[in-house]
Amino acid sequence: MAVRPAGTFKTTYAADMALLDTRFDQVGFALLLLALLLAPWWLGRYLFLLNAIGIFAIGAVGLSLLTGFGGQISLGHAAFMAVGAYTSWLLTQHGIPFLLALPLAGGTAFAFGAVVGLPSLRIKGLYLAIATLAFQFVLDYVIVHAWGAGGGNVVIGPSLFGYAVRTERQFYYLLLPLWLGAGIFAANLVRGRVGLALMAIRDRDYAAQVLGVPLLYYKTLAFALAAFYAGVAGSLFAHYNRVITNEHFTIGQSIDYIAMVVLGGLGSVWGPHLGAALVISLTQVLKILTPALVNLLPAFGRVATPLREVVFGALLIGLLIWEPGGLAMLCRKLKRYLDLWPFPY
Known about the structure:
By secondary structure, this protein is mostly helical. The chain has helices at 13-17, 23-37, 39-43, 47-69, 77-93, 98-117, 126-147, 168-189, 193-203, 205-210, 215-241, 251-264, 271-296, 301-304, 307-322, 326-340, and strands at residues 153-154, 159-160, 163-164, 243-244. Helices cover 72% and strands 2% of the residues. A hairpin with a 2-residue loop joins strand 2 and strand 3 (163-164). Helix 6 runs antiparallel to helix 11.
């Protein structure tokens, strides 16, 4: 829930319902939006990094709705991303325009998510995690036997009204409105009826049911919404990467998604974006540093392969001990400190 500073009073309904309700938030978001619009100029050849962050942030927003606000565990989020990617690939292979294939990919993942979410009424916790893990392996088996493992399937690049999107900059300006729209929709969703119902189920599902919250409907809806976000991210990934294989959507990718929402901050609308930025950036930095370390210390080559997993594991444990609220909570504490500075409280 939003934390408002003391002395901020709302005199109109519109001001009370505003998504950015303080001057600090409005100015900060305007500066962030300006920086994102001008990113191709200040990032240059590293714009690919922001494209990757945007794609995975959309998928992470979906998992945050399911896990952070709904309290449901999923170890198969990459499988929903695969559903969106392969659906979009098949549709565009048969002449369906990208603009139509994108929502259809999300819709197909939505349907798969609703089916996978049905067991959530009877099982939860580790048992639900195992059920979603089974979906991950079943889908991987289907992809391997239907379209083969390795080699990859070539995906047609996106196009808008006959205009082909070829460069990193063109794709970025295609991705940016979808990224912002996904974040704003989720931020509005969690403060409405659906978000309040999901949080009630997360905190105490039996009490929520006694108060009239239909568990089956909202638990299934949470899975379906998470799958929809993952499906859209999968479609964008397929048309951005131009090649998809089953190796792009493994259990390791699902664990990366969990790392994004936990490191970013569970139950925060900003958390999945911060977590995706951290995980994607750290992955790229380790890809650059690892060969340099191996050249400097040849004996280091034996442990260089799992270095990424070791760093992520250590980071996850350290952050959970230091600040369980993740990066979003750290940002909130920094803002509170600056508001009160130079006084401690």
